[in-house]
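Input sequence (198 aa), recorded before submission:
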Amino acid sequence: EQTGALPLLEDTETIYTFLAPPADTLNRQSASFIAKYVSIDWAPHTVGLWRQHIFPNITVHSWSVAGPLPVMNLDQQVTVFEPDPFRANNITLFNTDVQLLNGVIHSISDILWGPWQGKSMWDTLLETNQKRGGDLSILVSLLNQTNSFGRLVDTIRRYEGGPLTLFCPTDSAWTTSAIPVLTLQTISQPQGLGNVSL
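Predicted structure, token format:
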């Protein structure tokens, strides 16, 4: 309710499975953790976290599903369900198969963190570049060049003021646009890319 995630669970047009951390699971988190994730800056991030717990299909106790499952944010997250004992990614599930009009709820003994947990935006950018076959290499190179003069990479590596969205031009976007080589050289100089990006 505090983060605006309630409509996810009120949607009766979608049949879903919800892996629900109970109160004692959340109570194990620190007060500062809870305060952070219900704050205005982080509430959208928290909604994304709960989307990691929602699957747009029904997975009941008697089923065992392995492999990448689409979560509600449309990402493919590898979540492996094991039937005996019933677990998801080695996290114990209990009070399973609570039937609802629009799906089923399983209580889960821990938070099912998304793949971004514990990673900076810089870490995620490097991983994404690798997964995409290196088609963000020009951006990564320019960021690294700019970092030799100061603050930009450190900014996206260490920033903790709230969730960020990073728009990443692909290599083809750089090479097929009207940006001349001279401009690329210019923005990789001190303050250049920082002024463009921040």
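Checked by second reader. The beta strands are 16-20, 54-55, 68-70, 76-78, 81-83, 86-88, 91-100, 103-108.
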